[in-house]
Amino acid sequence: MSGNNVRLQAIKDVEAYVPPAPTFVTDEAPGAIFGENVFSLAVMQKRLPKLVYRSIVATIEHSKPLDPMVADAVASAMKDWAMEKGATHYSHVFYPLTGLTAEKHDSFFEPAGGGLSLAEFAGKTLAQGESDGSSFPSGGLRNTFEARGYTGWDPTSPAYVLDNPNGKTLCIPTVFVSMFGDALDHKTPLLRSQQSMAKHAERVLRLFGHEKPDHVVSYAGAEQEYFLLDRHFFLARPDLLNSGRTLFGAKPPKGQEFDDHYFGAIPERVLGYMMDCERELFKLGIPAKTRHQEVAPGQFELAPMFERANIAADHQQMLMTTLKRLANKHGMECLFHEKPFDGVNGSGKHVNFSIGNSTEGNLLLPGDTPHENAQFLVFCAAIIRAVHKYGGLLRASVASASNDHRLGANEAPPAIISIFLGDQLADVFDQIAKGGATSSKEKGTLLIGVDTLPVLPTDPGDRNRTSPFAFTGNRFEFRAPGSLQSIAGPMVTINTIMAEALDYIATELDTSIAAGTEFNVAVQNVLAEIIGNHGAAVFGGNGYSEDWQVEAASRGLPNLRTTLDALPELISEPAMEVFEKYGVFTHREMHSRYEVGLEQYTRSIGVEARSTLEIGTTLVLPAAVRYQTEVALNVGALKAAGIETDTSSLLEVSTPLTALRAALGTLRAALETDPAADPFDEAKHARDALLPAMTGVRTAADQLEGIVADDLWPLPTYQEMLYIL
Ligand code: ADP
Ligand code: MG
Fold first, then answer.
1. Residue 654: count of CB within 10 angstroms of its CB
2. 136 Cα to the center of ligand 2, angstroms
3. Model pTM above 0.85
4. How far is the CA of 704 from the centre of ligand 1 (A)?
5. 556-591 per-position pLDDT tens digit
6. Cβ–Cβ contacts within 10 Å for residue 486, how many?
7. In this structure, which ligand is nearest to the CA of 294?
8. In angstroms, what is the span from residue 117 Cα to ligand 1's centroid?
9. pLDDT confidence of 440, banded at 50, 70, 90?
10. Residue 354 Cβ < 6 Å to ligand 1
11. From the CB of 545, is ligand 1 less than 6 Å away?
12. Please, what are the domains in the chain?
């Protein structure tokens, strides 16, 4: 009866698995391969005429507009370099609103005269590509009759050669826009927002006496969490295949209660995989640095070194692709879903963020002199204002059906966006708020530029892991982004709201100074005003507690629990105004992002609901029915033999079986409801009807998992998936 049980077969296959031969190269110096496949500045310097090289550096390093004359020269050098490395194809790579990476490959060769000849790869080909992007979400920005989307070369992110055992491809990072110039991707707004933030940060720096500050950029370092499981188990779980998370599965007898996984020894198979990944990432110039086991069984983390946000965002996507691809090579599957296993900690992607430039360094690093510290406080104050004024937007920037399972589930920050400063910095702002009143601290009255601030530790020990937006000594860590999402969305929001806050500060300072106020006093005033009006977002307590929910409400901080509560923030007046004012999104583009957000939400829950129905009906129900028959036969046989027996064993399986049938009926009915005309109502139906109906099916099925004979159970269990690696 169990001959075709895919689960039992998977267990056998896992046992028989032979790992791939190691790829370790013993005589290779550590780091020798770093950037080997990247068309980097160093490569360009060697291969490009001096003037062309200088012009491209000005664009990459100092955000100068690209001189169209250089494209031809760069294209030709890029092609030669890639072909010397064995590339036969090139691909414009872009980041559509699905959050995935899209590529369209073209050959360097074309058929000619009975053979292949080298196709033209001119500046034009490099600079612009045309892609029939009609299947990418555009939220109404494109009709199908004008379905063309254009990819445009993004010279700020280096091109690279992607290795595949069967060939090599030159990959060119691009932006993706409609024929009217509307952004259809994550990269375009990221570049726009970087520019805007830089402009106002530089104004503030000039006020602090830096006459010619170098171009300011934002940096991002993303910590990627992920799960690994044996691929045989993955393939035996249609829910994981379809939706990236388990829609069924009772909790294992051993969970994460012993905390014995966090930073535990990494299993050999996983370590081999990680090393393989790091080598590939190094070749692509991605500075993979920290690796460790995470809190949950089967969960790991990889954190590359921080880089400029636009490059970090591309690298982050490449990192996810690499982790996925190599997991398959090692017989495993890599899951980025925010909550692949119910009742087990989920995965996030903490985005560490700072701003700075080559002349002033990191602007979020406390300084040694009162003047430097005043400047540091101004940048911190900008963040306080930004997070308080636009907390709802930050929440919306991490909103997705999958991340809803994680936020606020006592393992990740709540949906309330607050800011953690650490005791010392919070105390400094407290004193500033009191406006020069005598403070209890030994330094006495705190006057900007006059008194020395207490020395602020650059790596404070009092890290608060429950805060969504935490100061960690020289950067802020935004902990709400989901493991599956591109970091570009959150970075666009952070840059834009920082641009607004820095613009506000620079303008206030300009005005007061023009009115004759002394600089230090003007700074003191603006800091006091910001902490007075926006200090409500500062919170140092336990963000996971119930009390905080109550207190946050009394402070007027929004608590946007689900994606559907958060998405409307995107089309609120203040949001559309700030994005338009700083040149990041037009109203049209904001509406399109909102529409795409809704569509993605509804679609992903729809897939889950249909998978739940199918698995419940075709796998779980039959297994339970078979087992019920076995028990019934047994009860009958005992009765026939005159052996006294009660029928409770039969009831034990029939009761949840009846519940499962009923729950499947409810889910089927919810799926068959006519779609609502308004996309928001349709998304609400997904949230309020489909999700609860899926939970109903799961509850009954999970109960059956503890009752039905093990050799009949069709789905790999949590225990098998999480502990056999
Ligand atoms: P944690 O202790 O928070 O888990 P990790 O070492 O895992 O820290 O990751 C910290 C991340 O923060 C890394 O990606 C690191 O490069 C990044 N980071 C460090 N300094 C900065 C900075 N000034 N700006 C942005 N990111 C930074
Ligand atoms: Mg970490």
1. 15
2. 33
3. yes
4. 44
5. 999 999 999 999 999 999 999 999 999 999 999 999
6. 28
7. 2
8. 48
9. very low
10. yes
11. no
12. 33-185 (3.10.20.70), 194-600 (3.30.590.10)
